[in-house]
Amino acid sequence: MKRQALWCEIRFFLILVVAAAMLTGCAAGESNSLFTEGLAYDEADHTWTTEEESFEKLVKIMRQECAYPDTASGVYLLATDDHVIFLCGVNSVETDGKTRVNAYTVFEIGSITKTFTATAILQLCEQGKLDLDDPLGKYFPEYEKGAGITIRQLLHMQSGLRREFFPDEALEKDPVLMKKYYTDGFSDEELLAALFEAELGFVPGTKYEYSNVNYTLLAMIIEKVTGESYGVYIREHIFSVCEMEHSYCMEPGKLTSVPESVLEGTYPFDFEDVFPTGYMSDLRTARGAGDIYSCAADLLSFDRALTSGKLLSQEALDEMFNTEGGYGCGWMKVGRREPAYLHSGGTPSYMSHNLYCQTKRYGNLYLIILNPTVRNPSHAESIMKDLLMNY
Fold first, then answer.
1. What is the pLDDT of residues 40-63, one digit of tens each?
2. Is 254 exposed, middle or buried (0-12, 13-18, 19+ CB in 10 A)?
3. Which helix (H) or strand (E) element contains residue 89?
């Protein structure tokens, strides 16, 4: 009986040792479980790469770009529809202070949110619940100028509406107003009233001008059409379909990545006063335009589902990637070779990039970069430029 008891104790001890080793590996960022299965791990630079020779050139580009400690930080992922080519978590940790960032680390993705909002609008259009040529006045009858603005123009940033609900100069000159604005101190009714009183910047449909307000209004339209909150719709009709289990919409505080110090002079106000946590703790005024938290693995799932027709029909995808006016539906065209589309996102403490390329050699190619505060803003651009010139 003593031997049996001793053997039980030894077995229990071994289980604890193995479990501890597994947790240590995860804490070191050396295990992304199923996501990195079949990839080669390089402990020296904490990268996972495919061993398929056809991707050797792309791996070399990514490895070189992520080797610069003064510029590289965050998660870098390159993949096709069938393969993960490169994954690296560098110079950044999770909120526990020790786990290296990895494919499942959650960041603010900022304006990449707009691609999700556009997908939701196009889904509702396909279901016959709205029409892209519906006037804005149909959903906001109190807005007199809304009769001349369509949902399609909101999607393609051609509405003439200003960038934010309040003029940029007003926010910059009034710290109290700015703090109230960025901490959701205004109701939807107050924000809309301020917007509706303003003059349009240009005649709707005549040119492109980037505006967060376009996509916040689209989120409000989603709520009016479906009768459910924007966050619930995105979770049920996009996150769930794409099995995005580490993504959050309108749920502040779900981050697992640590923001770095904001570069001095970035904002015309006391950053710590407005954002004491370092990230957006209130998301209502950003909904539809920049409220989603996600990770590299989930964004890849979304990209693959989107381009494969799992979320939208080909007709809807044609509308989404129609960038003739300067902006598609959550995408901008980049590069001069084979079709390539990008949307970036910037929040007070994070920078993100989602690049989708249609290539003859590799098929669909996806590059996802999630950074805490960028040490060198041109770094991600350098990676994308190298890829677009060499794929």
1. 988 878 899 999 999 999 999 999
2. middle
3. strand 84-90
